């Protein structure tokens, strides 16, 4: 029997406030709904227990700043959410399940390559940690992440922006109208991964027909052309017509159809804040679709009140958006520091606002242009006066980029600059190091 894995982790001990939309009730109502409907008694549903991710798992995708030890006590629920995604991902690649639904919180898709704190309710990026674990341990090479949360998955995009072997697609409410204010068609990837990022900003009011049209006519052909070994759906549910934080008009039935069209190997819960009116029904529809059961009878109790954008009005918008996206050409700034290793280095400024914690991160990214691999990445990041460095040697790095990474790492440890900490992500060898002047070098 082809089984569908299911894992619950409601994170009872983590909340942003008793009345905050990101609290444990987000999953408790779903759990009750699935029990009442008898879904957990279906023979093809296999339940799993949560697992805790290690700091090494995290460092394979993200740098926890200024050092991991300063955050460990606050990361427990985030580590369990990420570890649970890893657990179900391993079950899928081992053939223990056909597909799975990781119903966990806290969410993660706003958490990027460098992590100074919580933003958009996210501290660790569950999907990114999962993806890089599967690549490091199981040799999975080509993975597609389709983010259907109403908010742009800017953190996931940031982590994989320079990776040609990860296709990132985000469908979201237009960033001009919603947090985090990004996710436009010109954001198409770095110099070694151009066109491996696809953003589709949709106008407020887009409903079931609109989403399904975009999937069938843009997303699915792009997935087919990329031919991934694994498809992961960042299954945010705040596109629902009752969600209080956004302005879209998807229904539970519409979500079921999205899942049926995408056929994801794993769906990982992201946002969704209509705790009683939407989440129990949307989660039910998604799970039924994954399990190959009829989801069309799932109906939420409330009726739609917001006006829905007609498909005839949406089609010209999508056609024009596609033309704009295809017309965007790469324009990168070539600049490297005087002590950088040989090669053509691209400089990209990056600024991140942490809305939950209320501060700004300033970043300067440098990418070694390479025809043979994803290229060495060097990131300078600052929070106030604290400065940290991330050096990344990518999966399947060529010998030149590997050596460039080692050279940069050696220079960092002998630098007289006021650097708080340094991180080496050696994804090629699955080895990760943290350094600071007081404690020296530590391998995870």
From TrEMBL:
GO biological process assignments: epigenetic regulation of gene expression
Family (UniProt): Belongs to the histone deacetylase family.
Domain Histone deacetylase: start-end pairs: 79-276
Pfam families from the UniProt entry: Hist_deacetyl (PF00850)
CDD domains: HDAC_classII
UniProt GO molecular function: histone deacetylase activity
Record protein name field: Deacetylase, histone deacetylase/acetoin utilization protein
Residues of the signal peptide: none
SUPFAM superfamilies the UniProt entry points to: Arginase/deacetylase (SSF52768)
Organism: Desulfosporosinus youngiae DSM 17734
């Amino acid at each position: 029997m082809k089984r569908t894995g299911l894992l619950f982790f409601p994170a009872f001990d983590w909340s942003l406030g008793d009345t905050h939309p990101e609290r444990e009730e987000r999953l408790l109502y779903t759990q009750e709904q699935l029990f009442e409907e008898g879904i957990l008694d279906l023979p093809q549903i296999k339940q799993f227990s949560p697992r805790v991710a290690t700091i090494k798992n995290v460092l394979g995708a993200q740098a926890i700043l200024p050092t991991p030890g300063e955050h460990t006590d606050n990361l427990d629920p985030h580590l369990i959410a990420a570890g649970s995604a890893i657990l179900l991902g391993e079950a899928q690649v081992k053939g223990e399940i056909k597909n799975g639904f990781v119903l966990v919180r806290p969410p993660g898709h706003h958490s990027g390559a460098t992590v100074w704190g919580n933003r958009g309710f996210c501290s660790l990026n569950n999907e990114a940690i999962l993806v890089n674990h599967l690549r490091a341990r199981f040799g999975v090479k080509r993975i597609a992440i389709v983010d259907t949360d109403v908010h742009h998955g800017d953190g996931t995009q940031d982590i994989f922006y320079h990776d040609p072997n990860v296709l990132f697609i985000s469908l979201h409410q237009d960033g001009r109208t919603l947090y985090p204010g990004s996710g436009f068609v010109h954001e198409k990837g770095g110099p070694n991964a151009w066109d491996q990022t696809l953003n589709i900003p949709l106008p407020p009011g887009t409903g079931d027909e609109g989403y399904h049209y975009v999937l069938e006519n843009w997303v699915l052909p792009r997935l087919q052309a990329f031919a991934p070994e694994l498809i992961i759906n960042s299954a945010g549910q705040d596109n629902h017509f009752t969600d209080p934080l956004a302005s879209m008009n998807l229904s539970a039935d519409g979500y079921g159809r999205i899942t049926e069209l995408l056929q994801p190997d794993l769906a990982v819960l992201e946002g969704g804040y209509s705790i009683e009116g939407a989440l129990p029904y949307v989660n039910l529809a998604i799970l039924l679709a994954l399990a190959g059961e009829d989801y069309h009878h799932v109906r939420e109790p409330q009726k739609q009140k917001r006006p829905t954008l007609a498909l005839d009005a949406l089609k010209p918008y999508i056609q024009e958006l596609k033309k704009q996206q295809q017309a965007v050409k790469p324009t990168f700034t070539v600049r490297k520091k005087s002590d950088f290793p040989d090669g053509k280095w691209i400089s990209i400024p990056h600024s991140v606002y942490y809305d939950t914690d209320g501060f700004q991160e300033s970043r300067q990214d440098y990418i070694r242009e390479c025809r043979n691999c994803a290229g060495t990445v060097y990131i300078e990041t600052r929070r106030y006066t604290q400065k940290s460095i991330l050096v990344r040697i990518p999966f399947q790095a060529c010998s030149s980029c590997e050596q460039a990474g080692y050279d940069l790492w050696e220079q960092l440890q002998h630098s007289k600059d006021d650097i708080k900490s340094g991180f080496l992500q050696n994804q090629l060898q699955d080895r990760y190091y943290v350094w600071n002047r007081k404690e020296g070098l530590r391998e995870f």
